[in-house]
Specification:
Largest sheet: 14 strands, mixed
Radius of gyration: 19 Å
Number of helices: 8
Strand content: 35-45%
Helix content: 25-40%
Mean pLDDT: 85
Oligomer: single chain
Shape: globular
Order of helices and strands: EHEHEHEHHEEEHHEEEEHEEE
Distance between the termini: 38 Å
Length: 297
């Protein structure tokens, strides 16, 4: 079929522990209805970035559709980072925080309409120890939860809930951090430090109320003497942190964070080991992503 448009569809079959058949079928039907040829790729966890890059070179699609969570979106974005291509997000993972911040609807037809047709924004990314973050990265309690979730055999919301309980019962004491940003040095004791390009976790909790994803800055959110009950509420989406006293937010373009011991670290829902130093800088307007019209108002 010689169609006017060609899109590349990347599907992560295991993200979120849910079946992607209906989503894939709906995407194919929508593409056929609108005269779009789909080139499909299913991730395997091996050489995915390289394979996506080759498919892009071979087919030069006008748009890249990604069915998966934040980690899949980031991986696909890195595969085409030097190309002029718009990414359409089809939320289908256990961590869909980016779709929450993009204000994507729940209705499948509306999601496809945005992914295929709508306007786009040029959003920032954050570089952390030479790794890229689209959304929210952190050290401490949340990263420990993600580590435990990745090591468990139960996926989806049930697995997440079970590991939240497990992580809460084994949570370490606060760590000490030194943060260098905006020509000042801050010493802090914290349970968790978030490096935020956007505002909300996938649970809907606002962790960074001042975050704007295309302003050329990121925020460092320091959660100090927050109790375990509140940490649990963050994970389940039952608390908004805008009015919490034990939180400090620093907005900057570059920072160095050093801790007194190695701390669990995650980027966009993917556990990245333990670290005692983070070098962080903004990557301004790094990725074109399809958004609802209201995001541009």
């Amino acid at each position: 079929m010689n169609s006017q448009k060609k899109f590349l569809l990347v599907i992560n079959p295991i993200s979120g522990g849910n079946d992607k058949t209906d989503l894939a079928d709906a995407t194919r039907a929508y593409a056929a209805q609108h005269g779009v040829e789909l080139v499909e790729y299913e991730t395997t966890g091996k050489n995915d970035e390289e394979n996506i890059r080759k498919l892009y070179r071979d087919h030069t699609p006008q748009r890249l559709l990604v069915a998966g969570g934040d980690g899949t979106i980031k991986m696909a974005a890195e595969a085409v980072e030097h190309q002029d291509v718009v990414i359409g997000v089809l939320p289908a993972g256990s961590a869909n925080g980016l779709s929450v911040d993009l204000e994507l609807p729940d209705d499948m037809e509306e999601i496809l309409k945005i992914a295929f047709h709508n306007h786009y924004m040029e959003m920032d990314m954050v570089c952390i120890n030479d790794k890229k973050s689209l959304h929210l990265s952190d050290i401490g309690a949340n990263a420990a939860l993600i580590r435990n979730y990745e090591n468990s055999s139960i996926r989806g919301k049930l697995g997440y809930a079970l590991q939240a309980i497990h992580t809460l019962t084994e949570l370490d004491a606060p760590f000490n951090a030194t943060i260098e940003a905006n020509d000042i040095v801050i010493e802090a004791e914290a349970k968790m430090i978030v490096i935020a390009n956007t505002q909300r976790y996938g649970t809907g909790v606002t962790i960074n109320p001042i975050g704007i994803m295309d302003d050329g800055k990121f925020e460092i959110v320091i959660l100090k003497s927050i109790d375990l009950f509140t940490v649990g509420k963050i994970w389940t989406g039952n608390v908004d942190l805008e009015n919490e006293d034990n939180i400090e937010i620093i907005s900057t373009q570059q920072a160095t964070i050093t801790t007194n011991r190695p701390i669990a670290f995650q980027i966009d829902g993917e556990f990245c080991g333990e670290v005692d130093k983070l070098n962080v800088r903004i990557l301004h307007k790094q990725m074109k992503v399809a958004v609802p019209d209201k995001r541009l108002e």
